[in-house]
Each structure stands twice: as structure tokens, then as C-alpha cells.
Design goal:
The chain is α+β, with helices and mostly antiparallel strands. The chain contains seven helices and five strands; from the N terminus they run ααββααβαβαβα. The protein has helices at residues 2-15, 21-150, 174-177, 187-201, 228-244, 271-277, 289-298; strands at residues 159-164, 167-173, 206-213, 254-260, 279-286. It has a five-stranded mixed sheet. A hairpin with a 2-residue loop joins β1 and β2. α1 (2-15) packs antiparallel against α2 (21-150), α2 runs antiparallel to α7 and α4 (187-201) crosses α5. The model has no long low-confidence stretch (mean pLDDT 85).
Length: 299
């Protein structure tokens, strides 16, 4: 456009002889400016075209990235939908499992509560049992003290009274009770047994075991006695007979047993040991019926 204007002006100038030099010069300057302006516009246009091309390239790249993002979005959406579905099913499954576990816990809780009640009851019964055992122990201690007092005059004559393992043991050596090879109780020995009977008469709930013991010397006498075992049994029954003379003694609580030489207190290698082994032991045991009944309840 500018070129056409400039060319027209030039032709007009050349064809008009009356145009002054000054006007020509001005026109020429104007032409140069317009030409320069045209060149600048052309450069700007080229830059704009270049920028447009770059923008189109950027747009295409952005569109490709957008398509990629859309594909990723669709992929993640599909995965999310699948996960949501699976999560819902898993949630239902977990809820069912949790309900089952809660039911189990509730059942166990009830069982534990019942067990706790049982343990509490057993604990109470155990306390009662301990109190009963303590009372039995105290009563046996009192019984031991009563026997010791009643038999005080026989101390130093082969008679001892002791308490152990919840029982009271009255041990009387044969020198106090019997002559060698005999099962007949001496008068002094009978006095001691009678005193024991008096205490037993005042304690009818005590079980009484009378054990006869010998040393290991073979029995050498004549008559109905076969051996030491037989002799120890005869001597035990002789003691039972004396105790039974006391009407207050509960005969159902009396038991006679012969142990022969098979439960010695000392070595039979010495005369002192043999003397200790030849004895009668009266073993007093508290009745444990109530304790046994409590043990049943606890178990």
C-alpha cells in the first residue's frame, strides 16, 4: 500500500514540471520515512507471525497434555469407582466380622463375669476354710496343752506330747506301759492312758489312732503271739481297751494298728535307739468333715 502511494507521488512529481525542488525533497523524505515505517511494520508482522506460530505450537502441546490428563483422570476415576465398590463390600465384610467379634466378646464377657462370681464365691469359701483350719489348729494346740497338763506327772518317764502337721502325738515308751514281750499294761502306764481318756472324753470329735511299735529284735516269747507285728497290734488294742472304759470316749473314733519294727524313731543299733522305738503312739486328729465339704464347694 505504502509502495503504491510512494510510486504515485514520484510519478506525479516527475510529470509536473511546475513542482518545486523543495516539495520534491519533502516528498522524497516522506517516502524514505514511509519506507522505513513499512519495514518496521513488516518486521513486527514477522514477529507476530512467529509468535502466533509458537502460540499454536504451545496450544497443541497444551491440548496434548490436556488429553493426557483427561486419560489419566478417566483412569483414576475408573480405579476410584472400583475401589469405592470394593471398599463398600470390604466395609460390609468388616462390619459383619466386627459384629461377630463383638458377639464373641460379649459371650466371653458374660463367661468371665460368671467365672468372676465363681471365683469370688470360692474366695469367700477359701477364707472360711482358712478360718476353719485356723480354728482347728487352735483347738489342737489347746488339746495339746490340756494333755501336757494332764500328763505332767509322767514327764521324764518315757512320755512326750507334741503337735505337728495339724495333729497331736502322745508317745509312751514301753518301759512305762509293758514288760518285755507282754501286752498287758502296767498300773503306772494305765494311769497315763486313763488321763488321756479323760481328755478324749471332753473332745468327742477327735479321731484317735493308737499305733504299736517295736524294735527289730525278733519276738522270742511263747503263746499266741507270732512276731513283732502281732505283738505291736496286741499292745495297741490293749490301750484301746483302757480308753474304752471311759464312757465319754466315742469308740467309733478309736482305731488300733500295729506297725511292728517298720516305723522306727531312731537307729536300732543302740540300746537307747531300741528303747525309743519300743513305744505306743496315740495320734489325735481333728475331724475334717467340714473342711472336706468346703473343699468340694471350692472345687
Amino acid at each position: 500500500m505504502i509502495k503504491r502511494i510512494s510510486l504515485g507521488l514520484l510519478i506525479l512529481a516527475l510529470s509536473t514540471s511546475c513542482v518545486s525542488k523543495k516539495i520534491y525533497t519533502d516528498l522524497e523524505s516522506k517516502y524514505a520515512e514511509l519506507k522505513k515505517e513499512n519495514r518496521s511494520i513488516a518486521d513486527e508482522n514477522a514477529d507476530l507471525l512467529k509468535a502466533k506460530t509458537q502460540l499454536e505450537l504451545d496450544r497443541d502441546a497444551q491440548n496434548k497434555e490436556l488429553d493426557k490428563v483427561k486419560l489419566e483422570r478417566d483412569k483414576w476415576q475408573a480405579e476410584y469407582t472400583a475401589l469405592e465398590k470394593n471398599s463398600s463390600e470390604a466395609l460390609k465384610t468388616n462390619l459383619a466380622k466386627n459384629r461377630e467379634l463383638l458377639d464373641q466378646l460379649e459371650t466371653k464377657g458374660k463367661a468371665l463375669a460368671l467365672e468372676q462370681e465363681r471365683l469370688d464365691a470360692s474366695g469367700k469359701r477359701l477364707s472360711e476354710l482358712e478360718a476353719l483350719i485356723a480354728a482347728k489348729e487352735a483347738s489342737m494346740q489347746k488339746l495339746k496343752e490340756t494333755l501336757s497338763k494332764a500328763l505332767n506327772s509322767f514327764e521324764g518317764k518315757g512320755l512326750t506330747v507334741e503337735q505337728k502337721n495339724g495333729k497331736v502325738y502322745v508317745s509312751m515308751e514301753n518301759k512305762l506301759l509293758f514288760n518285755s514281750g507282754s501286752w498287758a499294761v502296767s498300773s503306772e502306764g494305765k494311769k497315763a492312758v486313763v488321763e488321756v481318756g479323760k481328755v478324749l472324753g471332753d473332745n468327742p470329735d477327735i479321731s484317735v489312732l493308737i499305733e504299736g511299735h517295736t524294735d527289730d529284735d525278733p519276738f522270742g516269747g511263747n503263746g499266741p503271739i507270732a512276731d513283732n507285728w502281732d505283738l505291736s497290734t496286741k499292745r495297741a488294742t490293749s490301750i484301746v481297751a483302757i480308753l474304752s472304759e471311759n464312757k465319754s470316749v466315742n469308740k467309733q473314733n478309736l482305731t488300733a494298728a500295729g506297725r511292728g519294727e517298720f516305723s522306727p524313731l531312731a537307729s536300732n543299733e543302740t540300746a537307747e535307739g531300741k528303747a525309743k522305738n519300743r513305744r505306743i503312739e496315740i495320734i489325735l486328729t481333728p475331724r475334717l468333715d467340714a473342711i472336706a465339704e468346703m473343699l468340694k464347694d471350692i472345687n
